[in-house]
Design brief:
This protein is mostly helical. It has 26 helices and 3 strands. Helix 3 crosses helix 4, helix 5 runs antiparallel to helix 6 and helix 12 packs parallel to helix 15.
């Protein structure tokens, strides 16, 4: 055999191995082509709304933190973004400034390396336009495969991708950025939002069918607030992803037949807890309580080996959290959020240079705790007990947040209404506004969640059936029961954690409870009449959504231009339409709960509600932030 033949055989073998590894990795992440489609569709849609300017001034803190980490240190010396380090979330220890949300910063670091590598050989804006065109091609191509029209999908995707890329190159101007850190944060959040949609798809595909999973995944990706938050680099998208991963692993553990698989997935369900704590300690505690209760209430067995495996997974996940805290404050239990704030005017600082800048009002989990938190007990017991006392203090602080939430609901039940039903005009509306709010409530942002009004009917029936003996005696052992328990507990706790401060300025779509949006889509898909609608009327559902976006979007645009509506008025008007659809979806769902299901009506309402959500997110991106927002894709502002 010649040297050339040997080289060719070796190359073919290595290529085959690489392909096998890629396929295995693809199955691990996406499951199948449906998961790939959901991921690509979410990325393609979210990139259209991608802006280079800052939406909320907390972004400056995290972006400067990423710059510092890329330079090899945790503290921030000088502001690469903004004119000062006195921004929300910047902490001070020994005279140095430290950012928060280190899980987000570390997650974005590889994306920064890639962008820097691309910038060394090509124009970043052209490269991102090429990435979007390739994503569009792959989305259409994979979609064609799913409907049995692979060749047509390949051809159509190629034409669209080529046309978009040529158009982008013809109108592209240089992307004026001082550093790629902010773009990396956005790209990381975008990928996290897309993976969240994939997790929803994979979970519901295993629970029911591929068509139900696909509809839920698409809704989570492009018909929910993920569409706008994907490129606003806040922690909430990552918080939702970690909660969804815990939910998925919990379900897989209960579904597993082999004890080894059961233990592996049960331990994996605790890994996102430590990562969430690394992102935000209070949200990590919420996730921990939810998984512990749901896990041990529904556990198959709690043997020594199983518990040891679970404990190992949990404590390994906490290593980044403890290590980061130790390197910054000298104590593993004191995250940056518990340190003194850097500067005294952080909340009042505003971002300049385009777009809409808003103060975030801080975040849950507490800031300005100061020191080790040992307090009076530490002085009485001694410094050796400081770590234990610090942990107790953190737990007490967390319970205070929950108690504040309960008190807020009792004293001001209107908080729940303005957070979940109707935002309306509140006194913290943006300066210069015409009297209509720029924030929307939960149901205004996700009208299809109106179907959840019938969820208590389903729950009550399940309990009654079990009491009278007609239900399954093994109900608690069902995998979906564990998942449901987790979702309910997590939803209640995350609401109590933040409701005492909601609603507040710069929420857009109640971002503090953002994880409830994908979890709501999971619960919606658990309703049998919703699943029947998806299975029996998929074309009605698809055409209703497309009609709402394409036709409804044009009608809204014409109305805005003719009436000269402001961004606030437009967003508020869409929110009112959304509440109308929410009410109709709720009535349809209640009737269906009492065996009066009309899948045709349901498909139309669910499609219209999903379409309004997409339009509302587009209104936030294009109208609220405006042309000066500096969109990444060259063709978008035209």
């Amino acid at each position: 055999m010649s040297y050339r033949s040997q080289y060719r055989d070796a190359l073919d073998e290595s290529t085959g191995r690489a392909g096998m590894v890629a396929r295995r990795l693809g199955r691990l992440v996406f499951g199948d082509y449906g998961g790939v489609f959901v991921f690509l569709l979410t990325c393609t849609a979210a990139m259209v709304l991608w802006r280079t300017t800052y939406s909320i001034n907390d972004n400056l803190t995290v972006a400067n933190g990423l710059v510092a980490l890329s330079e090899g240190h945790l503290h921030v010396d000088t502001p690469t973004y903004g004119e000062t380090l006195e921004t929300p979330g910047m902490a001070k220890y020994n005279g140095k400034a430290y950012p928060r949300n280190f899980a987000h910063i570390v997650f974005a670091l590889p994306f920064l390396w890639v962008l820097d590598g691309v910038a060394a050989v090509a124009d970043v804006r052209i490269a991102l336009a090429a990435l979007w065109s390739l994503s569009m091609f792959a989305t259409v191509s994979v979609g064609g495969r799913l409907v049995g029209r692979h060749e047509w999908g390949h051809l159509l995707g190629g034409v669209l991708a080529l046309g978009s890329f040529v158009g982008s190159v013809s109108v592209a101007t240089p992307l004026l950025v001082d550093h790629h850190a902010y773009l990396a944060l956005q790209l990381a959040t975008l990928v996290a939002a897309a993976v969240s949609a994939v997790v929803i798809y994979r979970l519901l595909s295993r629970l029911y069918s591929a068509d139900v999973g696909l509809a839920a995944g698409v809704a989570a990706g492009v018909a929910s607030p993920a569409l706008v938050w994907a490129t606003i680099p806040k922690r909430h998208v990552l918080t939702a992803l970690f909660a969804l991963l815990t939910l998925f692993c919990l379900y897989r553990s209960r579904e597993a037949g082999r004890i080894a698989t059961y233990r592996r997935y049960r331990a994996a369900a605790y890994v996102p807890v430590g990562l969430t704590a690394w992102l935000n300690a209070a949200e990590g505690i919420v996730l921990l309580i939810a998984i512990v209760v749901a896990d041990f209430v529904t556990a198959r067995e709690n043997g020594v080996r199983t518990l040891a495996t679970v404990a190992a997974g949990f404590f390994v996940s906490l290593v980044p959290f403890f290590l980061t805290n130790y390197l910054i404050s000298g104590g593993p239990f004191t995250p940056p959020r518990m340190l003194d704030r850097y500067g005294s005017d952080a909340i009042g600082a505003r971002v300049t240079g385009g777009g809409t800048a808003s103060s975030s009002g801080g975040g849950g989990g507490g800031t300005g705790g100061g020191g080790t938190g040992s307090g009076i007990l530490g002085g009485l017991i001694g410094d050796a007990a400081a770590p234990l006392i610090s942990t107790i203090d953190r737990a007490l602080l967390f319970t205070q947040f929950l108690s504040h939430g309960l008190e807020a609901i009792q004293r001001e039940p209107g908080r729940l209404y303005h957070t979940f039903v109707r935002s309306g005009y509140l006194e913290f509306s943006s300066p210069g506004a015409t009297g209509l709010a720029i924030n929307v409530a939960f149901l205004e942002a996700l009208p299809i969640a109106g179907a959840l009004v019938a969820a208590p009917v389903v729950a009550i029936r399940a309990v009654v059936n079990r009491v009278v003996g007609s239900g399954s005696p093994a109900f608690r052992s069902r995998p979906v029961f564990a998942a449901d328990v987790f979702v309910v507990i997590y939803g209640v706790l995350i609401t109590l954690l933040y409701i005492y401060r909601l609603p507040l300025h710069a929420m857009l779509t109640v971002r503090y409870v953002y994880p409830l949006f994908p979890l709501a889509i999971y619960v919606i898909a658990r309703l049998r009449w919703v699943r029947a609608t998806v299975s029996e009327r998929p074309l009605w559902l698809a055409f209703s959504y497309a009609g709402a976006v394409l036709i409804g979007g044009q009608l809204i645009l014409i109305t805005v231009v003719m009436r000269d509506y402001t961004a606030d008025e437009t967003i508020q008007g869409i929110a009112l339409l959304a509440i109308t659809i929410t009410t109709a979806v709720g009535l349809w769902s209640l009737l269906a709960a009492f065996d009066r299901t009309n899948t045709s009506v349901g498909a139309i309402l669910l499609g219209l509600g999903s379409g309004l959500t997409s339009l509302l997110m587009a209104a936030f991106a294009f109208l609220l932030f405006g042309r000066a927002a500096g969109y990444v894709l060259p063709m978008v502002p035209l």
